[in-house]
């Protein structure tokens, strides 16, 4: 687990490379989709934290230009491409007037860690630990940058949904998408998992920390018992080599458990006793 990749982010705690062993578990083939989450809401009448708070973050260029001034309440300095949009929720991903009818097979977004944990409990599952997520995302490969190897676009072929062009002004969409895409748009990894790289970030169960050691051989690590932010893995459609090449399997970041945005989703696991 982990990486000593020199072009990574040392402050993220990506390294060192370390041995970890895991008990058996099942993991979802796909991230939870809008259709999946709609079934959960229909069954439970659950309200996400974005709905309770009344807003969520949307990437600036995805907001219809003619509605930008109407919808955008504020930006998130020092990342002004994130706009605070009142009424942006999982089923209104760009704010009032938008819906998910045409994107039911896209990963659900605008869900906080707390929302994701509530869905997982309803489904009799759990959020994956970071170790479970990384093991599954590697697809049987060891110390490769991506689930398919070390080349981002082998033979010029795009294998994930990330940013092409000049971030954050121009996304060429060379991979076929500007924004999220259906969860089965690209080939699965060696374990049959789809969309583990790019598309949307995925919440993990662990509190974020960086105190890893190459000497410790751990079994089923679950991170510290308390913290301020939860681990996210996999990168998103906004990741680009010039700014956030965290679409590598070992890369990681974090966010507070009540946060939501248009590029954060999740998948679930089922653990065996």
Chart the SSEs and their pairings.
Elements: E1 20-21, E2 25-27, H1 34-44, H2 49-53, E3 55-59, H3 68-71, E4 74-76, E5 79-86, H4 113-122, H5 130-138, E6 165-166, E7 170-171, E8 201-207, E9 218-219, E10 230-233, E11 253-255, E12 264-265, E13 269-271
Keyword list:
273 residues, alpha+beta, four-stranded mixed β-sheet, three-stranded antiparallel β-sheet, 5 helices, 14% helix, globular
Molecular structure report:
With 273 residues, this protein is of the alpha+beta class. It contains five helices and 13 strands. It has helices at residues 34-44, 49-53, 68-71, 113-122, 130-138; strands at residues 20-21, 25-27, 55-59, 74-76, 79-86, 165-166, 170-171, 201-207, 218-219, 230-233, 253-255, 264-265, 269-271. The strands form five sheets. The chain has a four-stranded mixed beta sheet. The longest helix is centred in the first third of the chain and has 11 residues, at 34-44. It is globular. The mean pLDDT is 96.
Structural class: alpha+beta
Strand percent estimate: 15-25%
- Report the average pLDDT across residues: 96
Number of alpha- plus pi-helical segments: 5
Give the distance, in angstroms, between the N- and C-terminal Cα atoms. 23 Å
What helical percentage do the residues reach?
10-25%
Q: What is the gyration radius calculated from CA atoms?
A: 18 Å
| Strand runs, count | 13
Shape: globular
Low-confidence stretches: none
Query: What is the chain-wise order of helices and strands?
Result: EEHHEHEEHHEEEEEEEE
Biggest sheet descriptor = 4 strands, mixed
Main sheet strand line-up = 11-10-8-12
């Amino acid at each position: 687990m982990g990486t000593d990749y020199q072009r990574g982010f040392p402050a993220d705690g990506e390294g060192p490379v370390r041995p970890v062993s895991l008990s058996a578990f099942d993991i979802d083939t796909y991230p939870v989709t809008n259709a999946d989450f709609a079934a959960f809401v229909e069954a439970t009448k659950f309200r996400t934290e974005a709905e309770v708070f009344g807003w969520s973050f949307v990437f600036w260029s995805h907001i219809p230009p003619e509605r930008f001034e109407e919808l955008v309440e504020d930006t998130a300095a020092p990342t002004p491409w994130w706009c605070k949009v009142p009424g942006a929720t999982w089923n209104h991903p760009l704010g009032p007037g938008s819906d998910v009818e045409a994107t039911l097979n896209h990963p659900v977004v605008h869900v906080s860690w707390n929302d994701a944990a509530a869905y997982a409990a309803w489904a009799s599952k759990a959020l994956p630990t970071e170790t479970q997520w990384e093991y599954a995302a590697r697809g049987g490969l060891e110390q490769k940058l991506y689930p398919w190897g070390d080349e981002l676009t082998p033979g010029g072929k795009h294998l994930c949904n990330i940013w092409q062009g000049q971030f954050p002004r121009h996304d060429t969409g060379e991979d076929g998408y500007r924004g999220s895409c259906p969860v089965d748009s690209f080939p699965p990894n060696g374990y049959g998992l789809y969309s583990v790289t790019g598309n949307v970030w995925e919440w993990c169960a662990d509190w974020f920390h960086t105190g890893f050691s190459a000497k410790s051989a751990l079994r089923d690590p679950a991170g510290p018992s308390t913290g301020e932010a939860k681990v996210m893995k996999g990168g998103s459609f906004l990741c680009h080599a010039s700014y956030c090449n965290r679409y590598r399997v070992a890369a990681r970041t974090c966010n507070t458990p009540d946060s939501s945005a248009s590029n954060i989703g999740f998948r679930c696991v089922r653990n065996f006793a």
